[in-house]
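= Paired protein data =
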Amino acid sequence: MSWRKVDCGISRENFKFRTRPICIKGVAYWATRNVTFDGSSILAVDLADETSHHIGVPEEFKALGVLEKDNYLSIIEDGPIGQDREEVRVWVLKDLCRGG
């Protein structure tokens, strides 16, 4: 048995990982924060073809977590509930190529 390094073109200079990964249908997902433009996104790494890309999230999501719901990538806003918001928001992404 041996290990090999997979180069998916991910730079840790611009992104901070905010969650542990989840895996749905062979794709690993992390919630990330882009330190360059101070925005959230999801990093997706396809383990079959060893490629990566970022998935945008709604702009109003400042703090988020990733989860799986019925084999679909989902995000949950996990920040503090303030005066302008009294509910937890969960969004499901059903039109992702391999995720749905």
